[in-house]
Design goal:
By secondary structure, this protein is of the alpha/beta class. The protein contains 6 helices and 8 strands. Among the domains are: 58 residues, Translation initiation factor 3 (IF-3), N-terminal domain (Ubiquitin-like (UB roll), Roll); 84 residues, Translation initiation factor 3 (IF-3), C-terminal domain (Translation Initiation Factor IF3, 2-Layer Sandwich), CATH 3.30.110.10. The strands form 2 sheets. It has a 4-stranded mixed β-sheet. A 4-stranded mixed β-sheet has the order 5-6-8-7. The radius of gyration is 29 Å and the shape is rod-shaped. The two termini are 45 Å apart. Its main location: cytoplasm.
Length: 210
Amino acid sequence: MINIAKEHKVNEQIRVRQIRLIGGEGEQIGIIDTRDAMNMAREKGLDLVMVSPQAVPPVCRLLDYGRFRYEQQQNEKENRKRVRSQEVKAIKFRVKIDDHDFKTKTGHVRRFLDDGHKVKVTIMFRGRERTHPELGERILVRVAEALADVGTPEGMPSMMGMDMNMIMAPKQAPAPKKERTEESAEKAGSAGETEPVPAASAAAEAPANV
């Protein structure tokens, strides 16, 4: 795979007389005049893009530059999203928290989990509250139960100073049963083996009608 830089010379921006050309399917065409390569690009409805300007002669490739840029931007967006998902967000609760505040803060945790973030849930103790860690544990249990559909606790709660902490991680959605069944069928077919599925088993695995 050729790594194309963000800034490239495209079509008429390519001023050299000869280039080494790579076709739209990655095939090596060889060293040809740039003018001939431009004509070839026009005939195929593609762009001539310089992918390796330091080579002698420079290497160019035939491709749909607009589509390539779109795919590159989508990949960059996914990479940024992946980096953001590695951030750990933090939401703090008090030991004495009313139902309204609990619901509001739990909603914040839910949004972070939905966005793919881990969340550190912190219970803050004041004064003598620290002598009753079970109060903080109860709140953390409530949080975990309220968010069981979108997240799971990582490890046990831990005390740090006057705070009790628990990390909630996003829950990965399981692959649909239909896809797993099709994948198994493909593997069995490629191996030249087919095994009968008992009727009871097939009925159990079939998704329920809603």
